[in-house]
């Protein structure tokens, strides 16, 4: 986001009054965890004739959780259906591990694929979460404009693209038809304003992954040679690289603008 | 500067579902308001559409996540994004809420009220001044509806909000519905609020509907404006005069035509109240 002007103020920043920090510590914990004692609520919040302090606090708690739950369910509909009755508990655990850290709910599920791996969910769930977040990312990310490609241009994978090493076939996952695991590499990307997908040859996947951190086509070849590929593998890549780059050009997978994420 | 001086009258909170109708029908509204954050991220709504609209109607960015009352430091990344949007639209002012929604970097995605004390008013006013300076544009702070009151508060909400806007030298976006909702929830006379805020700082109004939950009112923006809120608006007009008004609707959003019909009620009330004043002075 190079055109955004970041600054620190020339004015001295005011110090927050300690009583404000204390009340915000308490209330934010109560709202996000739903945990508080009625004694604390009564000490911090006034009662009215018809509502206790706890009831009044409950209005905010009752708003926070459904708002987050609805957002996650919208972002991960297949995962939600697959997990059924367990989905809500998993969302609660996810939000405890990864509370919302952006000013918009668009990115509330950003860490959910990582969370499924960290919490040892089944490989089917890990795959589902990964493709659903990649779909969302493809739909909401900007696409950098087309550019002239040559072998020495430093290129990055575009923000709308995600390469995923799935344990199950993509088609089975999106049709929600569980099946035995068979590995598959896919590129999920935006095309015609929709999330699209392309199964990648494992070697193509290795090539495109190099562009995550930025590289040129010629440097990518050098890195592949250094990675210990056999002569046969390098010959295979040489014969395929043109068609892979044609795909990359057609679907705007690469850009000379460094990758900066979706926000 | 011409556009900056020209905001008055009656407008709507423009939501993406009405873009197409709005652009084709070119309705009789004086200005529109949009939710700033929806245009500040990848995948958000199109700023280009807003720029097109802003050639005909001033577009006011209204935020929900500035969290000026947070004890956290100012979020300069957020402000950088907001400034980029505001500079693109060149509105006469921008606005957000006098509340907090972020703590220790985590978002509650709600507009939480503050304890009303002089120390906290001073702190929020200082932050507001810094933000307003950085944005290089007037800022309005809006009163929120609330469901809790802190035992630590030492002043009324209207005393608090007056201290903040006076010390910060910023404008006040007075939401008539929010006053009504809080008045019912906290058992005060809404006219006390309206009489006591500094009228010269009231630069804009919001009006909206709410939901009656039996033992309290919930500010849902999913109903038509109810009669008691219209009555409160009517009573406020002699105190504030010709203040630009935005009709907000965020859920169960009706057609643009229905929304404009409801906005016509606001116009009618305003002209009904001010007509005798006008005729008596001419």
Could you explain how this protein is built, in words?
The complex is a heterodimer of chains A (263) and B (282). Chain A is mostly helical and 263 residues long. Chain A has two domains: 18-121, no CATH class; 122-263, Outer Surface Protein A, domain 3 (Alpha-Beta Complex), CATH 3.90.930.50. In chain A, 51% of the residues lie in helices and 9% in strands. Chain A has eleven helices and five strands; from the N terminus they run αααααααββαββαααβ. In chain A, the strands form two sheets. A three-stranded antiparallel sheet of chain A has the order 2-3-4. Chain A has a two-stranded antiparallel ribbon with strand order 1-5. The longest helix of chain A has 23 residues, at 53-75. Residues 1-6 of chain A have low confidence and may be disordered. Chain B has 282 residues and is of the alpha/beta class. Chain B has helices at 2-5, 19-25, 47-54, 76-89, 118-135, 157-168, 176-186, 190-196, 227-240, 256-281; strands at residues 10-13, 31-35, 59-62, 94-97, 100-103, 106-112, 139-142, 171-175, 202-207, 211-212, 217-218, 245-247. In chain B, the strands form three sheets. An eight-stranded parallel sheet of chain B has the order 3-2-1-12-9-8-7-4. In chain B, a hairpin with a 2-residue loop joins strand 5 (100-103) and strand 6. The longest helix of chain B is centred in the last third of the chain and has 26 residues, at 256-281. Chain B is globular. The two termini of chain B are 31 Å apart. Classes of the chains: A mainly alpha (263), B alpha/beta (282). At the A-B interface, helix 1 and helix 3 of A face helix 4, strand 5, strand 6 and helix 5 of B.
